[in-house]
Description:
Layout: E1 3-6, E2 11-14, E3 22-27, H1 38-56, E4 60-67, H2 83-91, H3 95-112, E5 120-123, H4 128-140, E6 144-147, E7 150-153, H5 169-175, E8 189-194, E9 212-214, H6 218-228, E10 232-238, H7 245-257, E11 262-268, E12 271-273, E13 276-277, H8 288-293, H9 298-306, E14 314-316, H10 318-336, H11 348-359, H12 364-376, H13 381-395, H14 411-425, H15 429-441, E15 444-449, E16 452-457
Parallel strand pairs: 3-4, 3-10, 4-5, 10-11, 12-14
Antiparallel strand pairs: 1-2, 6-7, 7-8, 8-9, 12-13, 15-16
The structure holds adenosine monophosphate (AMP) and zinc ion.
Amino acid sequence: MLRFFDTYTRTLRDFEPLNGPAVGMYTCGPTVYDYAHIGNLRTYIFEDLLRRVLVFNGYAVKHVMNITDVGHLTSDADSGEDRMEKGSRRTGRSAWEIAAMYTEAFQADLRRLNINEPHVWCRATDHIAEQIDFIREIEARSFTYRTSDGLYFDTSRVDDYGYLARLNTEGLQAGARVEMAEKRHPTDFALWKFSAPEEKRQMEWASPWGTGFPGWHIECSAMAARYLGPYFDIHCGGEDHIMVHHPNEIAQTQARHGTRLANFWMHGYFLQIDSSRMGKSMGNFLRVQTLIDEGYEPLVWRFFCLGAHYRSKLNFNWEALEGARAALNRLRAAVLGWPADAAAAPDAAFVARFTDAVNDDLNLPRALAVTWELVRSDLPSGVRHATMGVFDRILGLDLLTWKPEAVAIPAEVQAVLDARALARKERRWADADALRAKARDLGFEIEDTPQGQKARKVT
Ligand code: AMP
Ligand code: ZN
């Protein structure tokens, strides 16, 4: 049995795929105006665990992730500045350059955390035509109205608008005083924003409504429909999306396709630091690179996240991270002492208990407890080795291949790796070779593997 907590119904539901063994999964991706922080990455680790558990259960997952590279304003109430243009001013680079740079850095972080790459990456700016088409269809069905600064979605036209968030829209209407501008209802949101007459935006496009750019929510409805169809299995994101972004995605898709977009809605809870949310805009954020610079390997962060259920908030502190490192190293040392035995099979009872845990709404803390029991068990070491190999398909900690000499990658070597990943993507092979040589000068050998580059310290 496989079951997940569905935020839409607020219940644990047995998972049944909509279309046989194929499962469609859409995860809201990063806004690439800055680096991802370890809180964002907690959410992507949760989604990676979900995908691994689905695959473990025999499903063929198609995983789609968007890259928000336009239209996400500093305020979720459709006011303020486009975060990309703001990031451009902060860094002195063009909005297009910072989008490419932070996308690359994000993808490098995923690789460092053994997060499987989505099958489809889709950038908002590559799908302007799909978004315009989508808005046109909504407009034709009379779900929109125009103001002086854009085209808006009229949420009062959807009967159960905000059901996902359990919003009391009447209460909101009565309580609304600020931030309405020309909006008719507080929950209405922009589908298309016009470029302001006095401003020259770096990212803008012609549209039937005027030159401008798409609102933040439309990209997900449009790209999900393009790659997964109008109704698919699972949609996920962080808990902040329960209130605004996901209700808006649902409203748009209901208006155009009459579906609620996804059968399951799943949300990862926040990473907190000093009891408040870690946020890109809050100046309290730590990156994977920050942890590395402090001497922690990225997989320590993955292991830290496995210790808490995805539906509970998790507090960061350095002592707890140190505890995670010590525990991970104990686990590795144990596995190192179990030589592989080709004749040994995984222990069925242990695999069944581990499977029960992960299939019960991704109960990784319980799965880890089973893992420690395996370590302490008196099963033959070859059996323990084989069983751990099964567990690690979910845990993703490289437990069977770990070697004690594995070391953290220093920041300057990581910068070379990131630059080389970009060079390879852009087919600048000579640059890639020069960067490999540079890494060698810094004492690291780069290997290209199907999972991306791996750097090994030369001893
Ligand atoms: P953003 O790049 O801000 O659009 O966020 C990327 C993803 O990270 C989204 O799914 C957010 O819901 C999620 N997220 C943002 N802040 C946190 C946090 N402190 N802890 C966990 N997830 C977060
Ligand atoms: Zn989204």
